[in-house]
Amino acid sequence: MNRGVKVTAVFAALVAGVVAVSLVSAGSGQFGVPLSQVFDSVLHRLGLTETRLDPFAEGALWQVRFPRVVMTLLVGGVLGVCGAVMQGVFGNPLAEPAVVGVSSGAAVGASLSIVAGWTFFGAFTTPALGFAGGLVTTLLVYALSRSRGRSEVVTLILTGVAVNAVTMAIISFLMFSADQAAREQIVFWQLGSLAGSRWPYVVTVLPLVAVGVAVSIALSRKLDLLALGERQARHLGVDVERLRLGAVVIVALMAAAAVSYSGIIGFVGLIVPHGLRMLLGPGHRVLIPASLFGGALLLAAADLGARTLFTYADLPIGMLTALVGGPFFFWLLLRTRRRSGGWA
Predict the structure, then answer these.
(1) Is the pTM of the predicted complex or chain greater than 0.85?
(2) Angle made by CA atoms 107, 170, 147, in degrees to the nearest 5
(3) Tens-place pLDDT, residues 105-132
(4) 87: number of CA atoms within 13 Å, CB side?
(5) Number of domains in the chain
(6) What is the CATH number of the domain that holds 249?
């Protein structure tokens, strides 16, 4: 198949999948709304039809369901883009945003807010501290990994591992010192959930997502050159250190914004970019936008499953992504080992 046709087909399938899963998800739940009525409601809001639903269905769709659907698409898309950028920066298909401490740092900020009972930003307090914790932790990992004005990939990854261990110890201490209610809230936050999504939260995240994705796409050409090797990239005019810093900062901003509202959701940034790279090739100009739609589709499908697999239960979405991502990660390890002829 011609590459252009293949790319077009993959993007068309991703967009169609996102639209279909979003509409089905909006109509699914304890108060079911038929798909035809969901479609009619959307058309009515766009001013394309005069059809109206009953007030209860309209309220369920536009006050509860659609905010959650849109937030799910934003978070999934962001995690997919972050994974593509991280794998490009590190030159490693096993990299994902959690490597640089975004998720664990956000968990520290959110846990601190929950245990201390802070409410100085109202309903935005926990997400705001989660965002700040993720951003600060990522910048700390980058600063600690630098030596003589440069940062190496291996040092950056190992520093991330060390800082992640420290943040997990801090979370454990906070849970130990918290009461039962706060402890349960921290555990639920760490498992990941989009149940509390509202339009004000969507409006808060959307600008950061838009800017982050635009900057990531702008870095595509330099990431492609970096794939040739650091020395070759420098000869071609790429400031590798500046590129790495810029990529880490933009990933920190996007991922911290996402997980501050959703909690920790793993493996999306690992599965989506790697799977699409096998389909579309390593070019980031195509891979990053594809990862945006792929991540949105994967998380939307996972959230649909989280709300409908069990009656009157809303499963933690991070648990479902881990159930899918764990076996995929193991398969990826085995595939990498076979292709390289072993680790030694």
Answers:
(1) yes
(2) 90
(3) 999 999 999 998 888 888 889 999 999 9
(4) 26
(5) 1
(6) 1.10.3470.10
